[in-house]
Give the backbone structure.
Amino acid sequence: MRIVLVGPPGAGKGTQAAFLAKNLSIPHISTGDLFRANISQGTELGKQAKAYMDAGDLVPDEVTIGMAKDRMEQSDAVNGFLLDGFPRNVSQAEALDVMLQAAGMKLDAVLDLEVEEDEVVKRIAGRRICRNESSHVFHVTYAPPKAVGVCDTCGGELYQRGDDSEATVRNRLEVYHTQTEPIIDYYKAQGLLVTIPALGEVADVTKRAMDALKK
């Protein structure tokens, strides 16, 4: 299957992408991984992306599209893939359509993880990270530490990252609404959109998505 996963920041796309890709035996292709791989390998596209990022500029669509195209042409993606973070806007969605058509392929579904905006803010703004070990993550509501501000695992100080503040999260949501949300209507018009309620346990959301894909 060839699937695109969309949804606002904090919807759980990365988590769901990993589970769905495993269940469907297809590679999970995320924009973040594409950028890191191309930059670390020193590819021409990676060098271009790094130059823009170092200058504090947005990476142009054509660079992101080029990375995605290279990745989708690799042998493990021949029988399908799950795209997470790409396409990010309608221009990228149109470019993806052209790429797939040229290869005699098409998308099977676009899964939209639906979460209320206040829940997104609550999920992200409530995260607390251990200063000693960034993999120790807690949440003031959903996974609170035993002692406020103290990591259960190593006793380190817990803090809120700057990009997890409510103001930053709401700004990220505004960018999502402006740039990415229009692809939902784009894919709805093609009859590809499947909306998945993303509240609840991770396994429950995965089951909803798998059930929808089977239909």
The first strand starts at residue 2 and ends at 6. The chain has a mean pLDDT of 93. Strands lie at 2-6, 28-30, 81-84, 109-114, 127-130, 137-139, 158-159, 193-197. The chain has nine helices and eight strands.
